[in-house]
Amino acid sequence: MNTQIIWNQTSRERWDAAHAAHSAVMQQHWIYGASMRLPGMRTHRAEILFEGLSVALAQFVCRRYAGVFSIALCTRGPIWLSDIADADKAQIHRELKRSLPVARPRVILFSPDLTDPQHPSMASLTRVLTGYSTVMLDLSQPLTALRASLHPYWRNRLSAAERSGLKLSELEHDSPELPRVLAEENRQRERKRFYALPLGFIEHYLEEGGAKSALILHASWQSRPVAAMLFLIHGSSATYQLGWTNPQGRALNAHNLILWGAMEQLKQRGIVKLDLGGVNTHDLPGISSFKINTGGEVIIYAGGYV
User: Fold this and answer.
1) Which residues pair with 127 in a beta bridge?
2) Which of 98, 126, 157, 235 would give a disulfide with 253, using CB separation of 3.0 to 4.6 Å?
3) CATH 3.40.630.30 residue ranges in the chain?
């Protein structure tokens, strides 16, 4: 097979253009890799040529442990730029593993943007992890269609929030209010004992991407903040990253109002897909129901492969 893997030479401009054209996921966005600035971590980016044509991009986030062992993750990638045979994709996965410029010993894990665990393009790898679930909203639809797709209970709560006197405003990416949003998120994580990307990652993402890299919406009632949500933007798509609310915000359904406002504003920015993030109806039934009842598509990904 005439395949060539080019490591760490593709320009950011070329990467960003291809990423946006294919509405690719946040984990394969240039800024995501650039924001992983933790000790022992490095990002490697590959452009794959097949028969002389550029057919894929793949971003790996790699971490070295104790200076002797590495784990490399290609999350929701590669980004396939051309329609090639599944057998050729399987061979490309094998070649990416072989040529990744990370010292051994190492584990290289792919979690593809696929829903079929037996997909033939993964035939050269072994599945070792089950996939996670998310809800994907198609923002290319008219707002009337999006609102009609809301579960009646969700829509009724939105209507109540719209009548409640809540005030919705957007925070700039460098707003002095942003540390409050992140601090509230940190307290929430500690209280509920759940883990997510480090808050430092979000700060780095905003530094790397600037004003167009995020949408941060803030709800207040009687001039007091009661809720906020932060969405990271990557090309023509966006991902819900974090949100907090207090008892007053919950009573007034502030998150329904914020998420609906985000749909409106992201559409105005030309965003066509909104990933609402992981759902787990067993451990997090409340937030999972909130996401599912937006009417988006529930997607269960194929899992992790080595």
Assistant:
1) 305
2) 157
3) 3-125, 134-300
Give the span between the Cα atoms of 238 and 269, in whole angstroms.
Answer: 11
Tens-digit pLDDT profile for residues 230-255:
999 999 999 999 999 999 999 999 99
In 3-state terms the chain splits into helix, strand, coil percentages (rounded to 5) of: 35, 30, 30
| pTM, entire model | 0.93
Helix (H, G, I), strand (E, B) or coil at 81: coil
CATH number of 3-125: 3.40.630.30
| CB contact burial 199-218 (16+ within 10 A = b; e otherwise) | bebbbbbbebbeeebbbbbb
User: What confidence tier does 37 reach under pLDDT thresholds 50, 70, 90?
Assistant: confident
Cβ contact 34:61 at 8 Å: no
The pLDDT, as a whole number, for residue 280 is: 87
Kindly state which CATH superfamily the domain 134-300 is placed in.
Gcn5-related N-acetyltransferase (GNAT) (3.40.630.30)
- In the predicted model, what is the mean pLDDT of residues 155-180? 94
Q: Is 165 helix (H, G, I), strand (E, B) or coil?
A: coil
